[in-house]
Amino acid sequence: MKVTLKIWRQPDAASKGAMQTYELDGVSQDMSFLEMLDVLNEDLIAKGEDPVAFDSDCREGICGMCGLMINGQAHGPEVTTTCQLHMRSFKDGDEIVVEPWRADAFPVVKDLVVDRGAFDRIIQAGGFISVNTGSAPEAHSVPVPRDDATRAFNVATCIGCGACVAACPNGSASLFMGAKITHLGELPQGQPERDSRVVGMVAQHDAEGFGGCTNIGECTAACPKEIPLDVISRLNWDLHAALRHGH
Amino acid sequence: MTDMPDTTLTGDPSHDAPAEHGDDAAGYYTPGEPIRDTKAPEGPIDERWQTRKFEARLVNPANRRKLDIIIVGTGLAGGSAAATLGEAGYNVKSFCYQDSPRRAHSIAAQGGINAAKNYKEDGDSVHRLFYDTVKGGDYRSRESNVYRLSEVSANIIDQCVAQGVPFAREYGGLLDNRSFGGVQVSRTFYARGQTGQQLLIGAYQAMERQVAAGTVTQYTRHEMLELIVVDGRARGIIARDLVTGEIETHLADVVVLASGGYGNVFYLSTNAMGSNVTATWRAHRKGAYMANPCYTQIHPTCIPVTGSHQSKLTLMSESLRNDGRIWVPKQKSDCDKDPRQIPEQDRDYYLERIYPSFGNLVPRDIASRAAKYVCDEGRGVGPEVDGVRRGVYLDFSAAVERLGRDAVEEKYGNLFDMYARITGENPYDTPMRIYPAVHYVMGGLWVDYDLQASIPGLFVTGEANFSDHGANRLGASALMQGLADGYFVLPHTIRDYLADGPFEKVEETHPDVVEARKSVEDRVSHFLSTNGTRSVDSYHRELGNIMWEYCGMERTEDGLKKAIDLIRTLKDDFWRNVKVLGTSDSLNQSLEKAGRVADFLELGELMCIDALNRRESCGGHFRAESQTEDGEALRHDDQYAYVAAWEFAGDGELPVLHKEDLVYTAIEMKQRSYK
């Protein structure tokens, strides 16, 4: 099939970007979206034009490195990562608009590549359990109710791709944060630092320039791992509790 | 089922028969001095690690912050080491090419992590895990290292649980286990089909905690392009900032490579797009021996190739083999039929037929080759690619009937979803199609018992080293090794080396540093100024085709010699005719790939030479010239019970082969049998 691509091109962080149009023929339904861009890039290189820069690594939907706005939707029309989106989701003759994640806290590095270093810094601010190597008790010394472990796991599947931020009209990272707060907060091991964790992470979130949550829910709709919106309630609950406790 | 599965074929006369041929690789290498000392302590095998930990010298806590450690790679091996060494108070610099340490490819491991906890009381023990791992590796791993791995395995689970890794649990709140390919006990801990992700997030969070504490500095989107060796010791790296293009010099007292495996030499593999050999290959060129580079693991359960646009292959966790049954039609004429219409009696459950006691759970190499053979016979299924159907069925209909759809979904739901997304087919209704793909490399930089390479001050952990998996890695053992090395082994052994530090300060103006930096700058400017006609990817794809064809699941003397010629020609052409656009002072993904492919070309040649030299079949290395009458792999312990450690002798020079004899004191070498 044949598609028309309108892709954001921006040489570097300091330069101004613009949309550019490319026609691509011979696209197979079995190609992933990123393989389609690989084919485009081989064409561009053959013509002596700079290939389109985009991030991807595992290409199996788990590393969280890829992420594009496709026709205005984070990761495109399916509930999955960009690398797992296949061209069978498009039709012959479609026009496809491809942009980088849109958020002030994710500045563009080049073309479709953005800087998500802010997510690492939010984790540094408390998204962990403090346990030095070698000091752990025997694994069975603390049983964890199966439902709690399952709930923790279900939100620990967050891949840190940033789709929630890109989809949010406020550019908030509340879903990302809420997922981590809930993951660690569901487990007995996460209790001692529950207050300091949420306070630290929220403060860093705001310092990075992410917006506030106004319960719109675009984040959870865009999330390729289907992290539920109630993790944000959990985040707020924990934050209020921590403040009540004097943090 | 708890008996040791090793009772057959011990007296097979063909087993010790000398190979009929002499030196296949004559003319391709230079014999070197054997390696006599691996630095493993003497004494009973179960006391060696305790001995080493005690004898390894300590570093005073006040001195630790004066010692700089560079760690390249942030997967399970690198991330866990950065966290642990940071906690200990050393000054750690951590490098990764991704935009965050959390993206390292350990994250994609699905199935689980082994540990000798014996929670199921099914006869497991440290010794049995050790035994299974050595046997699974087809007696080509180093006994003392594997025993240690088994010994520390239980600590890993404790550590990860304490970090908040949400392993699967039973209703009583205790940890659940499952069994995995090649073993008869349930010792695999898992977090649905995303165990690697959960373990890596645990290590990542521990490392980020140290970043906040100021002991670890992380350098993301940085790629190591050269090792700095001064006065015979590893003293730093040259790295490129992938965003600004700046070539940076980073000096340290010790360098740790945890940069993963080189499966992408095959172009198509289950590795991440960026996984590469550059860090270890540059170290190899500076004097670090590369051991057993031909030992490649071809994973039996991947989604088949659909066409030439394919950029990578996707693994379906081996845990699927616990409940899925593998089959192909008995008749070629049934291969294009809807599998649901093929009656039971017309199906060939070939693994259950050939290996009745292990059935669908035979080790990976055996399962892979068996799939190749049935497809070569013309009984493969799925679409024809280049005239052959390369796929076999993995069927869950019996499991759904036995356990119910909900139970199957609970166990494998995310894997089924992934399969459906990629293929457009629903595996609850119709059998999955699978085919083998390159997944893991057992070969890597040679290390001693301390995980130190042949260059003092260079340590190598995880998939990047060679030591624990022999010629074949068992399922759920890579996660175990990565975390064992990073959390529990390296932190003890590295202190013995660092006890001599801080080493004399090296200036950036030192001739060896200047030379390393200049070689990187020259390479970058060469790629950008060649202005040839072919893209980097086209070379990579061609190299991959050569490797898969001649150095893949089955290898022959003629094929390997042909491959070496083809690779040499391709390499010459690459250096003269590659086309890399753009500039060096910005994000330039073609330039990044060019450097990686240049190193893959050199590695590919060495892999073929190593495979050519090893005229025996062992684990993932199958030489067609060395098989039993019924087509099973045939080792030649009298000739090849050694580690082949290759030394780089210079461009255009023959590599030098150093042999480390494998001596087993706690285990008897036997021909593997899973029948």
Automatic annotation (TrEMBL), chain B:
Residues 68-479 form the FAD-dependent oxidoreductase 2 FAD-binding domain. Residues 540-674 form the Fumarate reductase/succinate dehydrogenase flavoprotein-like C-terminal domain. The keyword Flavoprotein applies. Its EC number is 1.3.5.1. Residues 1-11 have a biased composition (Polar residues). It holds the Pfam family FAD_binding_2. Residues 13-24, 34-48 have a biased composition (Basic and acidic residues). One of its GO terms (molecular function) is flavin adenine dinucleotide binding. It is found in: Cell membrane. The active site is at R364 (proton acceptor). InterPro entries: FAD-dep_OxRdtase_2_FAD-bd, FAD/NAD-bd_sf, Fum_R/Succ_DH_flav-like_C_sf, Fum_Rdtase/Succ_DH_flav-like_C, SdhA/FrdA/AprA, Succ_DH/Fum_Rdt_flav_su, Succ_DH/fumarate_Rdtase_cat_sf. Keywords: Cell membrane, Electron transport, FAD, Flavoprotein, Membrane, Oxidoreductase, Transport. It catalyses: a quinone + succinate = fumarate + a quinol. It is a peripheral membrane protein. GO terms for biological process: anaerobic respiration. Its cofactor is FAD. Residues 1-48 are annotated as: Disordered. GO terms for cellular component: plasma membrane. Belongs to the FAD-dependent oxidoreductase 2 family. FRD/SDH subfamily. This is succinate dehydrogenase.
